[in-house]
Write a structure and sequence with these properties.
alpha+beta
Length: about 150
Protein backbone atom coordinates (compact mmCIF):
# COMPACT_ATOMS: atom_id res chain seq x y z
CA UNK A 1 0.00 0.00 0.00
CA UNK A 2 1.26 3.43 -0.92
CA UNK A 3 2.07 5.94 1.83
CA UNK A 4 1.80 8.92 -0.51
CA UNK A 5 -0.80 11.63 0.16
CA UNK A 6 -4.21 10.84 -1.29
CA UNK A 7 -7.06 13.18 -2.18
CA UNK A 8 -10.61 13.11 -3.50
CA UNK A 9 -11.45 13.96 -7.12
CA UNK A 10 -14.95 15.14 -8.09
CA UNK A 11 -16.38 15.34 -11.62
CA UNK A 12 -19.92 16.49 -12.47
CA UNK A 13 -21.76 16.24 -15.77
CA UNK A 14 -25.33 16.80 -16.99
CA UNK A 15 -27.05 14.32 -19.27
CA UNK A 16 -30.12 14.70 -21.46
CA UNK A 17 -31.27 11.23 -20.43
CA UNK A 18 -33.25 9.93 -17.49
CA UNK A 19 -31.47 9.03 -14.26
CA UNK A 20 -32.58 5.41 -14.77
CA UNK A 21 -31.02 5.22 -18.23
CA UNK A 22 -27.73 6.79 -17.07
CA UNK A 23 -27.57 4.56 -13.99
CA UNK A 24 -28.34 1.37 -15.92
CA UNK A 25 -25.54 2.05 -18.42
CA UNK A 26 -22.99 1.51 -15.63
CA UNK A 27 -24.23 -2.01 -14.95
CA UNK A 28 -25.16 -3.35 -18.41
CA UNK A 29 -22.07 -5.11 -19.86
CA UNK A 30 -22.90 -4.44 -23.52
CA UNK A 31 -23.39 -0.73 -22.88
CA UNK A 32 -20.67 -0.30 -20.23
CA UNK A 33 -17.99 -1.86 -22.46
CA UNK A 34 -18.48 1.04 -24.88
CA UNK A 35 -17.49 3.76 -22.42
CA UNK A 36 -16.05 2.40 -19.14
CA UNK A 37 -12.25 2.26 -19.39
CA UNK A 38 -12.41 1.98 -23.19
CA UNK A 39 -9.77 3.97 -25.04
CA UNK A 40 -10.09 5.33 -28.58
CA UNK A 41 -7.14 3.28 -29.82
CA UNK A 42 -7.73 0.22 -27.64
CA UNK A 43 -9.97 -2.78 -28.01
CA UNK A 44 -12.27 -3.86 -25.18
CA UNK A 45 -11.63 -7.59 -24.93
CA UNK A 46 -13.53 -8.34 -21.72
CA UNK A 47 -16.41 -6.70 -19.84
CA UNK A 48 -17.75 -8.78 -16.97
CA UNK A 49 -20.25 -7.33 -14.51
CA UNK A 50 -21.84 -9.09 -11.54
CA UNK A 51 -24.28 -6.28 -10.67
CA UNK A 52 -25.06 -6.96 -7.02
CA UNK A 53 -23.68 -5.69 -3.73
CA UNK A 54 -20.54 -7.77 -3.20
CA UNK A 55 -20.41 -8.59 -6.92
CA UNK A 56 -17.48 -7.50 -9.03
CA UNK A 57 -16.57 -6.11 -12.42
CA UNK A 58 -13.62 -6.63 -14.73
CA UNK A 59 -12.92 -4.67 -17.91
CA UNK A 60 -9.88 -5.49 -20.03
CA UNK A 61 -8.83 -2.98 -22.68
CA UNK A 62 -6.06 -4.04 -25.12
CA UNK A 63 -3.79 -1.07 -25.74
CA UNK A 64 -0.89 -1.39 -28.19
CA UNK A 65 -0.95 -5.16 -27.69
CA UNK A 66 -0.97 -4.85 -23.90
CA UNK A 67 -4.00 -5.87 -21.81
CA UNK A 68 -4.97 -3.45 -19.03
CA UNK A 69 -7.40 -4.81 -16.45
CA UNK A 70 -9.75 -2.54 -14.46
CA UNK A 71 -11.41 -4.27 -11.51
CA UNK A 72 -13.69 -3.49 -8.61
CA UNK A 73 -16.35 -4.66 -6.20
CA UNK A 74 -19.80 -3.12 -5.86
CA UNK A 75 -20.33 -1.75 -2.33
CA UNK A 76 -23.72 -0.04 -2.81
CA UNK A 77 -26.32 -0.24 -5.57
CA UNK A 78 -29.27 2.07 -4.98
CA UNK A 79 -31.12 2.33 -8.32
CA UNK A 80 -31.23 4.82 -9.96
CA UNK A 81 -29.45 7.26 -7.70
CA UNK A 82 -26.28 5.86 -6.15
CA UNK A 83 -23.55 3.40 -7.10
CA UNK A 84 -20.44 2.83 -4.99
CA UNK A 85 -17.58 0.54 -5.93
CA UNK A 86 -13.93 -0.14 -5.27
CA UNK A 87 -11.60 0.47 -8.16
CA UNK A 88 -8.16 -0.81 -9.06
CA UNK A 89 -5.81 -1.34 -11.95
CA UNK A 90 -3.65 -4.27 -10.75
CA UNK A 91 -1.10 -3.85 -13.55
CA UNK A 92 -0.05 -0.51 -12.08
CA UNK A 93 -0.86 -0.72 -8.35
CA UNK A 94 -2.10 -3.12 -5.68
CA UNK A 95 -4.08 -0.25 -4.10
CA UNK A 96 -7.84 -0.03 -4.48
CA UNK A 97 -9.70 3.25 -4.31
CA UNK A 98 -13.38 4.07 -3.85
CA UNK A 99 -15.71 5.60 -6.46
CA UNK A 100 -19.19 6.96 -5.76
CA UNK A 101 -21.59 7.83 -8.58
CA UNK A 102 -24.63 9.90 -7.59
CA UNK A 103 -27.34 10.77 -10.09
CA UNK A 104 -29.99 13.43 -9.49
CA UNK A 105 -32.94 14.02 -11.85
CA UNK A 106 -32.85 17.57 -13.33
CA UNK A 107 -35.73 18.57 -15.60
CA UNK A 108 -35.88 16.14 -18.52
CA UNK A 109 -32.37 14.86 -17.81
CA UNK A 110 -30.11 14.34 -14.83
CA UNK A 111 -26.86 15.40 -13.23
CA UNK A 112 -24.18 12.86 -12.37
CA UNK A 113 -21.51 13.54 -9.75
CA UNK A 114 -18.62 11.11 -9.55
CA UNK A 115 -16.40 11.18 -6.45
CA UNK A 116 -13.15 9.21 -6.57
CA UNK A 117 -11.50 8.85 -3.14
CA UNK A 118 -7.91 7.84 -2.54
CA UNK A 119 -6.31 9.38 -5.63
CA UNK A 120 -2.57 10.03 -5.33
CA UNK A 121 -1.88 13.77 -5.53
CA UNK A 122 0.42 13.29 -8.53
CA UNK A 123 -2.50 11.79 -10.49
CA UNK A 124 -5.29 14.31 -9.78
CA UNK A 125 -5.37 16.00 -13.19
CA UNK A 126 -4.92 12.68 -15.01
CA UNK A 127 -7.77 11.15 -12.99
CA UNK A 128 -10.08 14.13 -13.59
CA UNK A 129 -9.33 13.98 -17.32
CA UNK A 130 -9.88 10.21 -17.41
CA UNK A 131 -13.25 10.36 -15.73
CA UNK A 132 -14.18 13.33 -17.92
CA UNK A 133 -13.47 11.21 -21.01
CA UNK A 134 -15.42 8.28 -19.56
CA UNK A 135 -18.43 10.51 -18.88
CA UNK A 136 -18.12 11.93 -22.39
CA UNK A 137 -18.10 8.36 -23.66
CA UNK A 138 -21.17 7.62 -21.57
CA UNK A 139 -22.97 10.57 -23.14
CA UNK A 140 -22.00 9.40 -26.64
CA UNK A 141 -23.06 5.84 -25.82
CA UNK A 142 -26.44 7.04 -24.58
CA UNK A 143 -26.90 8.90 -27.85
CA UNK A 144 -26.24 5.69 -29.76
CA UNK A 145 -22.61 6.18 -30.73
CA UNK A 146 -20.01 3.42 -30.31
CA UNK A 147 -17.11 5.57 -29.10
CA UNK A 148 -14.40 2.98 -29.71
CA UNK A 149 -15.69 2.09 -33.18
CA UNK A 150 -15.96 5.78 -34.11
CA UNK A 151 -12.36 6.36 -33.02
CA UNK A 152 -11.08 3.41 -35.09
CA UNK A 153 -13.00 4.48 -38.24
Amino acid sequence: MSTEKKVTVRVTRRFEASAERVFNAWLEPERARKFLFATPTGQMVRADIDARVGGSFCFVDRRSGEDVEHVGTYLEIDRPRRLVFTFGVPKYSSDNTRVTVEIVPRGTGCELTLVHEGVLTDYVSQTEAGWGKILGGLEATLSGMDVAAEARA
